[in-house]
Design goal:
Blueprint lengths: L2 H12 L3 H20 L4 E3 L3 E8 L2 E4 L6 E4 L2 E8 L1 H7 L1
Antiparallel strand pairs: 1-2, 2-5, 3-4
Helix pairs in contact: 1-2
């Protein structure tokens, strides 16, 4: 599902305009992004939890040359599905 398809679905289900649905979706995504940027979690009961994870520094290889390289530590976004979402997918 693309963003446009999700906006169409939200507009239809909520009986609102596509413009209002897109604004709501954009607001949701910015809210999640800004909260994760602060290092906090976003929990949506039944749906899941967005959080910031850490990836340790490690050694890797350049696939073209085979040369060993160092990959820096990084913060990454993570999502853990809630029970209701897991059950809906089964």
């Amino acid at each position: 599902m693309t963003k446009a398809e999700l906006v169409d679905r939200m507009a239809k289900d909520a009986k609102i305009s596509k413009k209002a649905a897109e604004a709501a979706l954009d607001s949701f995504m910015m809210g999640v992004r800004d909260t994760l940027r602060k290092g906090k979690r976003v929990s949506l009961v039944g749906f899941g939890t967005f959080a910031v994870g850490r990836r340790a520094a490690r050694n890797g290889r350049n696939p073209q040359t085979g040369e060993a390289i160092k990959i820096k530590a990084a913060k990454i976004p993570k999502f853990k599905a809630g029970k209701a979402l897991k059950d809906a997918v089964r």
